[in-house]
Design a protein that fits this description.
disordered N terminus, two-stranded antiparallel ribbon, mainly alpha, about 150 residues
């Protein structure tokens, strides 16, 4: 597939090629096609209005179909596709969060960080370290009153 040819760096012979960002199993062909269009539009995010128009539907019709098929909105599904792309890049590359934000269709790094934190509960950098199983380092500090506190060593 073309996705395999577009990897960011050569992989060692013992490492498998990265899988395509997974998609939910959907029986509705319109929703399946909408997800494919949104995924293939990366890194330029597609709006729900534009997606509906491309499918020959009204926005509300598309929203109802997504709700029935996936129990979510088209906007959330598009966001999930972009987040999945960001997760894949965080896992398999050492690229900066700024570069990953642009590649995954976010307007800038702060937009990715904010959206990622809402979805995952941590920043992309902490998620990357956790995904790679890097040790979490804690540092201990004493304030002026002699109280000991801890902070992350990232």
């Amino acid at each position: 597939s073309l996705n395999i040819m577009m990897i960011d760096e050569p992989l060692a012979a013992d490492r498998p090629q990265p899988p395509r960002v997974s998609e939910p199993r959907v029986s509705d062909p319109i929703v399946r096609r909408a997800l494919a269009i949104a995924r293939d539009a990366q890194p330029a995010p597609v709006s729900v209005e534009r997606l509906a128009a491309r499918l020959g539907l009204g926005r509300r019709q598309l929203e109802r179909r997504f709700k029935a098929a996936l129990a979510t909105s088209p906007a959330q599904a598009i966001r999930d596709i972009r987040l999945a792309e960001a997760r894949a890049l965080l896992t398999r590359t050492d690229r900066s969060v700024t570069d990953i934000a642009a590649e995954a269709g976010f307007s800038d790094a702060s937009h990715l960080i904010r959206t990622f934190r809402q979805a995952e509960g941590v920043t992309p950098d902490l998620w990357r370290r956790s995904a790679r199983r890097e040790p979490f380092a804690l540092e201990w500090h004493q304030d002026e009153q002699g109280k000991t506190t801890e902070s992350s060593g990232f």
